[in-house]
Amino acid sequence: MSPETVLPILRSVTELRRIVADWRRDGLKVALVPTMGALHAGHMALVARGLELADRVIASVFVNPIQFGPNEDFSSYPRREAQDAALLTSNGAGALYAPSADVMYPEGFSTTISVGGVSEGLCGVTRPGHFSGVATVVTKLLLQALPDVALFGEKDYQQLQVIRRMASDLDIPVRIEGVPIVRETDGLALSSRNAYLSATERATAPLLYKTLQDVGARLIAGEDAVSATAWGKSEVLAGGFGSVDYLDLRDASSLKPLDSLDRPGRLLVAARLGRTRLIDNLGLLPR
Ligand code: AMP
Fold first, then answer.
1. Same domain, 121 and 208
2. How far is the CA of 179 from the centre of ligand 1 (A)?
3. Shared domain check, 270 and 170
4. Where residue 81 sits, what CATH number does that domain have?
5. Which domain range does residue 109 map to?
6. 4: in domain
7. Which of 20, 23, 35, 43 is catalytic?
8. N or C: fewer beta carbons within 10 Å in the chain?
9. Which helix (H) or strand (E) holds 32?
10. pLDDT at position 2, please?
11. Of ligand 1's atoms, which has the minimum distance to the CA of residue 152?
12. What is the structure's pLDDT at 269?
């Protein structure tokens, strides 16, 4: 789509299905990029990968109330649809699906998708109910759009594994594609929540990724996971983070805990900097 073209903004399931049906009739493949908006270059990497795998990309923007806990940032989460639409247009998306909460959860809505195993532990401990909120909304988005492929960032690595499990368990006929993390030049993973950081916190934030790299080097050198991650937690706390929810080595696909890097692993962290909770992760292969 050229930048002058107006991006269709779809508000209902009917409008969404109509545009997808039109494209399919023309023999086009369709990709879906689910987001909560406040879009940045990380989201655009998903759009770009979508355009490699399909002919048309629909981005959805929906700040999903049921994936936020009672004391989380649902009401303050940044909402800026006009900017999101402009960024999507200039990055080649074919439509923006931006339903209201009433469209997604009409009066009487009563169904929850809950995924065992990979949802437990890590963010599942500190954010109870979060992954069932994610799995429920993503199931709905996939069934509403029925895309050929749906793209999710490795930034939310546990979420990606939950969605893979859910789509496979429910036989949803869609390819789930993970996209590598897009980072600032100093290593901080791009996130809509980075906007919450003060200047001082922003200067501290890259320590999270640096620590993942340092802990990763220790694990690759043969150090056991308990001692390497304990060292990493103390580094993050000494560097100015207020608390660490977890810093764990897990199996890269099942997310089961690993004692050492004896198979492909994923190092995952969640830590709090002032009032902002940051997450990051790093893939590791044994030497
Ligand atoms: P969000 O809007 O934060 O819910 O994110 C929507 C999608 O974009 C999710 O699949 C995220 O994992 C992905 N995403 C967010 N930030 C990044 C990033 N820095 N790199 C890659 N993917 C990202």
1. no
2. 9
3. no
4. 3.40.50.620
5. 9-179
6. no
7. 43
8. C
9. strand 30-35
10. 56
11. 10
12. 98
